[in-house]
From TrEMBL:
InterPro entries per the UniProt record, alphabetical: Cellulose_synthase_operon_BcsQ (IPR017746), DNA_Partitioning_ATPase (IPR050678), P-loop_NTPase (IPR027417)
Region (Disordered): 256-278
Ranges of compositional bias, category Low complexity: 267-278
Protein name, UniProt field: Cellulose synthase operon protein YhjQ
Pfam families: CBP_BcsQ
Amino acid sequence: MPLICFASPKGGVGKTTLSANVADMLRRQGRTALALDLDPQNSLRLHFGVPVGDLSGFNAQLLRRPDWRSCLRQAASGTLLLPHGAMELRDALEYGVALERDPGLLATPVREMLADPRVVVVADMPPGPSQALAILMPMANLVVTVLQSEAISAAMLAEIEAGRFLGNGTMAALFAGRLQFVLNGVDMASRLSRTAAEAVARHLGSRLLGAVSRDDAFAEALTGQRLVADAAPGSRAAEDIRQLAQAITALLPANATMPPPAPPRAAMPWTAPEWGTH
């Protein structure tokens, strides 16, 4: 039932990495987690072990109104995944125009996903303003904004905090209050990174959900197409993700149904399971 959107003012800040690992950590907490990739880079799938050459996905087919259940994948860990799919530039332009004309193309299937009270949907949004984010904002419980621990984040903080990257107009202003923040790539050994992180933390206060350290464990996990909690469970990266997931959980609706923990099971192939049966 809850929807968590991971967004960012710009690309290259680790948004997709955090989306994938938080979705996995929510699953480890006993929730049914669905990772939804709406970023045309189509890279969320790589964190869950989908082969590089497998370019199929839900969002790339959206103009043909596919049944999203038929595009659903399940990772060996149990996390559900809707990959974005490969998309040519011309298709991407048509996609943006189509969403502006008919927001229901995306809103309707997402509402169907959220109708299952057992499910928490973690959506990896395109960087910067997008039609997809404008459509999902009214449905989202949280918009988790990923900032890199660098000087530019501290310098632009007032504009970022105001939610201007969400787009212009009344709709963006109305839902800017749902913005929460996470600092990524904090390097405590770097004076610049630490100073920037401290400045951001002081300014945001309670709206800062957490900070994630710069840790090679993330890159090493992605190289093996694994989640950091699997590849390096004792790492600082895994602990930071665990704390971030806990902070997010604390802000989710109290009436969100928590299913009983599933018993351990053998790894499953990448198939399209029945929705809500896992």
